[in-house]
Write a structure and sequence with these properties.
Residues 3-219 form the NAD-dependent epimerase/dehydratase domain. InterPro entries: Epimerase_deHydtase, NAD(P)-bd_dom_sf. The chain contains 14 helices and 13 strands. It has helices spanning 11-20, 51-58, 74-86, 114-117, 121-124, 129-141, 169-177, 198-208, 229-244, 265-272, 281-286, 296-309, 318-328, 339-352, and strands at residues 2-6, 26-31, 41-45, 63-68, 88-94, 148-153, 155-157, 182-185, 192-193, 195-197, 217-221, 227-228, 250-253. The relative contact order is 0.12.
């Protein structure tokens, strides 16, 4: 039994790989960086966007399952979809619950998508993430094959992915850990959101593998727990204060359009500024109600404390940091940057500016 995981080093991919360890599956995972094989997990080093590397991986044999965590442009996906479907018994396409339009009711898999109901012609002319995922779903829906399963996670978290609104941890947490004030849109703080533990999503995917009720179907994989972004921030900072003994501050800014100049405006308008509540009864039926979802307060307490013990940062957004400084009246100095790598990036940005 062989499974290929494309781009399997993100939060959900890592959790799924760990879950499949020590099983009867032979698991192959593509990764850009060199990793040591372990037990039944084989890492294939290369960029899955590279056509030659991808073809070598996908045609290595006929796969029982391919789980695809890659993000494609619609044009790129349209060229590859037949290869995927012909090379496996079941192809999992990672979409996103960002595809959904605003709804006053809990979202089901049949709720309207932005692509279908949005009237913003400027936005529709783009291939922004939510639109791209919906268009790629349509490509699968119109094929003559049904050996695919579309999954729509929403905002997921683990030890290394901790989101706050549109910000990743490199935008919000790094700034707080420097002792600076975070800047956040006032309009978003009461918006309802859902954050799902990545390991829970991985379990749900594993329950859909070779599940007859999953073929040719779409599932969002989310908890039904609903929190405001203000509540999420308070939970984060409560854990941080308990762990570090420090106090952390946020400034809510009334003019949301200010943020459009520094961030992807469509992510703010058509995702973060929409209440997200979910009805996950469809996947519960498909999995015979086997799924359990971690309560956010419990999951984030474990994940955030684990991260603080051994923090690993990707590239810090210094442009965003200095923009926030202009609003808060604070100053970020080179010694505030954590480590030589970030000090070098700090200097590089200052030179460009």
């Amino acid at each position: 039994m062989n499974i290929l995981i494309l781009g399997g080093t993100g939060s959900i991919g890592q959790a799924l790989t760990e879950l499949l360890k020590n099983t009867a599956w032979n698991v192959y995972v593509t990764t850009r960086t060199r990793r040591e094989n372990v037990q039944n997990i084989t890492f294939l080093q290369g960029n899955a966007h590279d056509e030659k590397f991808l073809a070598e991986c996908v045609t290595k044999e006929h796969w029982n399952v391919i789980v695809d965590f890659m993000a494609y442009s619609t044009q790129e996906f349209s060229k590859k979809v037949e290869l995927f479907l012909e090379s496996t018994d079941q192809y999992f396409f990672l979409s996103s619950s960002r595809v959904y339009a605003a709804s006053n009711e809990p979202l089901t898999e049949d709720s309207p998508r932005l692509l279908d109901v949005c009237t913003d012609e400027t936005y529709l002319a783009t291939d922004e993430y939510a639109l791209a995922k919906a268009r790629q779903e349509n490509i699968l829906l119109t094929t003559n094959k049904k050996n695919w399963t579309i999954i729509r996670p929403y905002k997921t978290y683990n030890n290394n992915r901790l989101q706050l609104g549109m910000y990743e941890k490199e935008e919000w947490l790094y700034r707080l850990m420097m002792g600076k004030t975070l800047v956040f849109p006032n309009e978003l703080k009461k918006r309802k959101t859902t954050l799902t533990y990545a390991a829970d999503v991985a379990v749900a995917i594993s329950e859909l593998i070779e599940n007859e009720s999953a073929y040719g179907e779409t599932f969002h994989i989310t908890t039904t727990e609903s929190l405001s972004w203000e509540d999420v921030f308070k939970k984060y900072t409560s854990i941080l204060s308990e762990t570090t003994g420090k106090q952390f501050h946020i400034r809510y800014v009334d003019d949301i359009e200010m943020f459009y100049n520094i961030w992807n405006p469509y992510q703010i308008k058509y995702d973060c500024n929409i209440d997200r509540r979910f009805d996950n009864s469809k996947i519960n039926r498909a999995t015979n109600n086997k799924l359990q979802y971690t309560v956010f307060a419990e999951g984030i307490n474990k994940c955030l404390k684990k991260f603080i013990e051994s923090p690993e940062w990707r590239n810090i957004n210094w442009k965003l940091n200095f923009w926030m400084d202009n609003i808060t009246g604070e100053k970020t100095k080179i010694w505030d940057a954590d480590g030589l790598k970030e000090k070098a990036r700090y200097v590089k940005y200052c030179i460009k500016k």
